[in-house]
Automatic annotation (TrEMBL):
<keyword id="KW-0624">Polysaccharide degradation</keyword>
<dbReference type="InterPro" id="IPR013784">
    <property type="entry name" value="Carb-bd-like_fold"/>
</dbReference>
<dbReference type="Pfam" id="PF09260">
    <property type="entry name" value="A_amylase_dom_C"/>
</dbReference>
<dbReference type="InterPro" id="IPR006047">
    <property type="entry name" value="GH13_cat_dom"/>
</dbReference>
<feature type="signal peptide">
    <location>
        <begin position="1"/>
        <end position="22"/>
    </location>
</feature>
<keyword id="KW-1015">Disulfide bond</keyword>
<keyword id="KW-0106">Calcium</keyword>
<protein>
    <recommendedName>
        <fullName>alpha-amylase</fullName>
        <ecNumber>3.2.1.1</ecNumber>
    </recommendedName>
</protein>
<keyword id="KW-0732">Signal</keyword>
<keyword id="KW-0325">Glycoprotein</keyword>
<dbReference type="Pfam" id="PF00128">
    <property type="entry name" value="Alpha-amylase"/>
</dbReference>
<keyword id="KW-0479">Metal-binding</keyword>
<comment type="similarity">
    <text>Belongs to the glycosyl hydrolase 13 family.</text>
</comment>
<dbReference type="InterPro" id="IPR013780">
    <property type="entry name" value="Glyco_hydro_b"/>
</dbReference>
<feature type="domain" description="CBM20">
    <location>
        <begin position="489"/>
        <end position="574"/>
    </location>
</feature>
<keyword id="KW-0378">Hydrolase</keyword>
<dbReference type="InterPro" id="IPR013783">
    <property type="entry name" value="Ig-like_fold"/>
</dbReference>
Amino acid sequence: MAANYIPRLLFVLLYLTELVHCLTPAQWRSQSIYQVLTDRFARTDGSTTASCDVNEYCGGSFQGIINKLDYIQQMGFSAIWISPVVKNIRSSGQDGDSYHGYWAQDIYQVNTNFGSASDLVSLSKALHGRGMYLMVDIVTNHMGYDGCGNCVDYSIYNPFNQQSYYHPFCLIDYSNQTSVEQVLLGWRQYIDGLRIDSAKSVDKAFYQPFEQAASVYAVGEVYDGDPNYFCDYQNYLDGMLNYPSYYWITQAFQSTSGSISNLYNGINTLKSACKDTTLLGSFMENHDVARFASLTSDYALAKNAIAFTMLADGIPIIYQGQEQHFSGSSVPNNREALWLSGYSTSSQLYPFIATLNMIRKQAIKQDTGYLTYKAYPVYSDASTIVMRKGTTGSQVIGLFTNKGSSGSSSFTLSSSASGFTAGQAVTDVLSCTSYTADSNGNIAISVNAGAPRVLYPTSKLAGSGLCGGSSSTSGIPTTIRTSTVTGGCSTPTTVAVTFTDKVTTQYGQTIKLAGSIPQLGSWNAANAVTLSSAGYTASNPIWSGTVNLPAGQAFSYKFIKVNTDGSVTWESDP
C-alpha cells in the first residue's frame, strides 16, 4: 500500500540520515559501493554453514556486517548500501517473509531481526572509522506488502495508521505517467536510503525538496531501459541506477552472440540524453534482477561485464555474491546467503574486482578530471568494444569482448583511438602484460581466452600496488586519504591510512600490521591488523590494508609474518 503523506515521512528520512556521513554528489563520484542484503550477508555468530531458506529470515545482522567489513574493504569498496532498517510486518506474502526489509510497519523502530538501534549506530561508526560510508535503504512508496487490498488493518502501521494516508487501490496503466505515480507497484518498488527506488511511483515534486533537506546525494531507481524516459528524471534527481546500461551490458556479454552494437549505440545515446552520466549508479546485478551467472556460467563473459560496469561513467555498485559468481535467477533465488561461500577471497572474481577498484582509484589519483570525463567507445566490431575514459596522458583504455573463455582474437589499437603515443609503454593491469606503442603510436593487442584488457600508462602506475607499481617495503609510500565534508557536517577526527608491504609468502602465511597504538594492536601480534593479498601476484607480491587512525597522532609500526603454525616473524628494525 502506498503512502503519500510526504512531510512527516521526510522528517523520518532526515532523522535516519544522521547515520550517514555527509557527502555531496561530487564526493560520491569517487566512491565504490558494495550492496548488502542485510539478512543474507553475515550472521552475528559468524557461521558459514547455517542453512538459509531464501523465503524466510536467515539470520544476517548489523553486527554480522561489522564483523565482515574487512571482507568488503579489502575488495576495494569505500561504501555499503544496506537493506531497509525499519520494523517490518511478519507475514508470508507472495515472496515469503519480510527478510528483505521492504514491508514497513513502524518507521520509528528498527527491525530487530537485524539487531538493535545501537547496533545500527555501531555499524555506522565502524564504517566511518574506516573512512567508509553508509547508504541506508528507506522505503517511502508503500507500507506493508502487496496483499489483500480490502482487508488491511491500518491501525498496526506507524505513523501512517489511517486509510486516508494511502492511494486507493486500482489497476495500473503502466503507459500512463499519472497512473504510474498514483497507484501502488508493490514492495519491489521502493524508496531507500539516499537511494530513491520506484521513482516512477512518486510525484516528481518530492525529489528536490527531499534532496535539499537531506543535503546528501540521492540516487533513484527508474526501472526503464529507454534512455529518453530514463534521463528525464535527472532533471529532478542527482543520479539514478543506470538501468539502460544494465540492459545493454547484459545483452552484450551474456552470450558469444550478444549485441555489441546495441551497447555501442546505447552508450552514445545515453551521454546525449542524460544531464550527467557520471552521477549514475553503474551496476549489472541487484536483488531484483537475475544473477548474471544464471544467464551464463562463463567466467570470461562475467569478467568482461563486471569490468565494463566498474570502469564506466558513474559510481560502480557490486551486489553481494557477484564476487562469488552466485547464480540465482529470479526473486528470491537471487538473494542467497553469502556466508555459505565461506567469504572466499581466492575465488576468481574477488581479486578481479579488487584489481578493478585499485585501477579506478589510481586513475582518480592521477587525473583530476577522471571522474567527470565521460567515457566513449573508440572502436567496436561484432564481438569487441573499446572504451576510453580520462584525460590524455592518464587515460584508461578498456577492451571488452564477448568471445567467451574459448575465444581469442587480435587487432591493432590505433593511436587516434587510444591517445597513446609513439614508443609509449602501457600495461594491461588485469594480466600485467606490457605493451609498447610503435612509431605511429599503435599497439597490437591479443585477446586470449576471452579476457578483458584494461590498458594504462605504465609511468602512472607508481604507488598503485598494481603490476610492479610499488617499490620495496622501505620505499613504499604510505597513502593517506582525507575526507572533506560540507553542508554543516563535522570534520572527521580520523584519517584512513593505507599500508603496503611487498613480500613473498608461502601458502597459508599472512602478513599483519602491528604498531604502538590500539588501532594497530599495541604491539600485540594477536591484535594486529591482517593485510589483504587481493592484489598479490607472483611478479608483484603485494599485501595491503587500510586502517583508520587518529588524526595528528604519532605512532610506529612494523609488518609481521604469521606462519601456518601460528609462529610470528617480526620485521627487522630499519
